[in-house]
């Protein structure tokens, strides 16, 4: 019977652009996701985050749902263009997050604030986006503003969510905003995200409660080779996906093999003296998002090359300089995203992190699954596959803990169905359903199940 430590944090997660709506209200400026979703053909169904779950106007109702779920923490993100459009503090936007944080605290729920979940102010993209060093400085200024505003009440700060996606899906494959397909620019973005992270941690520490914990959320890829002969393909993908961020953030240096692998694309001259040290700020806990493992093999040119890495195909590959790597379709079962369900990757990933960074605790800042939910005539959603997915992955977390990993918490992705980026509203990850049209909130079976798990502090059975 898998068990969790006494003080294990149980939570749920969302992100600003995916749930808030109110895209042009109360002084909010446009973000790259407004521009991207308003461009015909880039998001499935022409969906946008203009209304999304209307969380901006339904804050109290959603806070009450969190309270009824009994979670100890809620991970949300702050919309940068809502609070600092054109580099100027926007009081009504800041007020919204004050209400959110206060509403959580009143209900005994710990706020976990993510500063950047992909919605860069459009004017910063117009000035070059993450490809430009200045964006890292602007990010630190925005971090300071948020620290000054809610830093007396927020005890856990996450700088970036999945910089892998921001850099490679935004600037290399182009399936995410801003939709650029420039590999060299994507690697510059990697660096300026790392730098921005470090500068933001410093800016926060200067103003927030000294007891606050600093973190970053990475979508680490658990990379496996088809056979031992594929070890170099595993190494190369691990460097691009994982060590490109872990290296500077936790060790103060880019991996030398990453620089060598990408030498034909960039000379990395955007990394200045002192940058790697600046990126490497002491962290209290590392956030890990996990959905599925990655399977690769060396491609020798003898057959058609498969690039099925589980991400949407874009105009170009997110995998820079990986011409000799093949991404292999993994055995099912699959979620609605086409991602295979394999919780063993989560245990292995947590144990690898424990081995490589023994002093760094982790928390699962996202884990969950999209399935095509069916509403019964009496309004129920019997999403037993989502329950099974969550049960398996929580068991995997407990196994990592019993093998020595220091895992502090788990956040289900997501509290509610929301705007699933380039998939629009066609993919639903919520444990609470958001009814199209009415936006009514309906608890799925998984929400009832999670409430019971949280209350018991353990899995049933
Ligand atoms: C609707 C959107 C709504 C979303 C919420 C969609 O089906 O078209 O307007 O914001 O559901 O999940
Ligand atoms: C992101 C979420 C997203 C989820 C499912 C993560 O990559 O942080 O915003 O909805 O995965 O795709």
From TrEMBL:
The keyword Nucleotide-binding does not apply. The keyword Cell membrane does not apply. Gene3D superfamilies: Glycosidases (3.20.20.80). GO terms for molecular function: beta-glucosidase activity. It holds the Pfam family Glyco_hydro_1. Its EC number is 3.2.1.21. Keywords: Carbohydrate metabolism, Cellulose degradation, Glycosidase, Hydrolase, Polysaccharide degradation. It catalyses: Hydrolysis of terminal, non-reducing beta-D-glucosyl residues with release of beta-D-glucose. Belongs to the glycosyl hydrolase 1 family. NCBIfam families: BGL. This is Beta-glucosidase.
